[in-house]
Design brief:
Pfam families: Asp_Glu_race. Belongs to the aspartate/glutamate racemases family. This is Glutamate racemase. It comes from Paracoccus shanxieyensis. Helix content is about 45%, strand content about 15%. By secondary structure, it is of the alpha/beta class. The protein folds into two domains: about 150 residues, Rossmann fold; about 120 residues, 3-Layer(aba) Sandwich (Rossmann fold). Helix 10 links the parallel strand 9 and strand 10.
Length: about 270
């Protein structure tokens, strides 16, 4: 019954933590492709191939349902995977959908025409590859009209977080927010379009100000997963044990993961 969670590095642990808290009975297998992180500076073909390899590894662990807890992979690879690569008995879900559900206040199963929503000015903070894909804007357009999205590529933030340099990460966040505010002075909402960014969410909120509602993914993904599994329980796989896998150095990744989540995590080599 295990569910797989894939990320290019450690950011997806924020999603895993939220899912584990909401669904403590559910075995989770996490795979971090730390050998190839970050994905945000890679081209689409490279991201597609690396993501497919990671998802295949999670299938080997008995995970018929895999969450791409990586916005870059969701933006650059998910649509192509679902259209050309995915077997009929497997499912791969991205992390954009729960955010758009929350932002537009409508369920993804609602296939009525796009309509006006309360929020008109949205700031999107994401990796350069996610911003370049325009995947968020494309998916949002299926559900809402009249929403102005200003996207800011946040180069360097993921690297700083992965290196454990909180001071640099917060300084970069402040700089990126200031750059976006020069183009959109009064956003009503901000989307943190990277699963690393909840680790510096307070810095985003401080730079944006108290009047901007900040949408962060982990809790939204955890809620959406519960709803999905109620509707599609057949995609609970055969795996029955929680594991943490990495393509990188297990000892080094375990140390960083423990710092991120503030409880011990032991990674194994994938």
């Amino acid at each position: 019954m295990a569910v797989g969670i894939f990320d290019s590095g450690l950011g997806g642990l924020t999603v895993l933590d939220a899912v584990a808290a909401r669904h403590p009975e559910l075995p989770l297998v996490y795979l971090g492709d730390n050998k190839h992180t970050p994905y945000g500076v890679r081209d689409a073909e490279d991201i597609f191939n690396l993501t497919c390899a990671g998802v295949s590894r999670l299938w080997d662990e008995g995970c018929d349902l895999v969450i791409l807890a990586c916005n870059t992979a969701s933006a650059a690879a998910l649509k192509r995977m679902q259209e050309t690569w995915l077997p009929a008995d497997k499912r791969v879900l991205g992390v954009f959908v729960p955010m758009i559900e929350a932002l537009t206040e409508r369920r993804w199963g609602d296939n009525s025409p796009p309509r006006e929503v309360a929020v008109k000015h949205v700031a999107l903070f994401a990796t350069p590859a996610t911003v370049a894909s325009r995947a968020f804007q494309r998916e949002l357009a299926f559900r809402a009209i009249g929403v102005d999205v200003e996207a800011q590529p946040c180069g360097g933030v993921v690297d700083a977080i992965e290196q454990g340099d909180e001071i640099l990460a917060e300084a970069l966040v402040t700089s990126h927010v200031e750059a976006l505010l020069r183009r959109m002075p009064h956003p009503e909402a901000a989307i943190l379009g990277c699963t690393h960014y909840p680790l510096v969410q307070a810095a985003f909120q401080k730079a944006l100000g108290p009047d901007v509602k900040v949408y962060s993914q982990p809790q939204l993904v955890a809620e959406s997963l519960g709803d999905y599994l109620q509707r599609r329980p057949e995609f609970l796989g055969q795996g029955g044990q929680s594991r943490f896998l990495t393509t990188g150095n297990p000892e080094r990744v375990s140390g960083k993961a423990t710092q991120f989540l503030r409880y011990p995590i032991r990674f194994e080599s994938s």
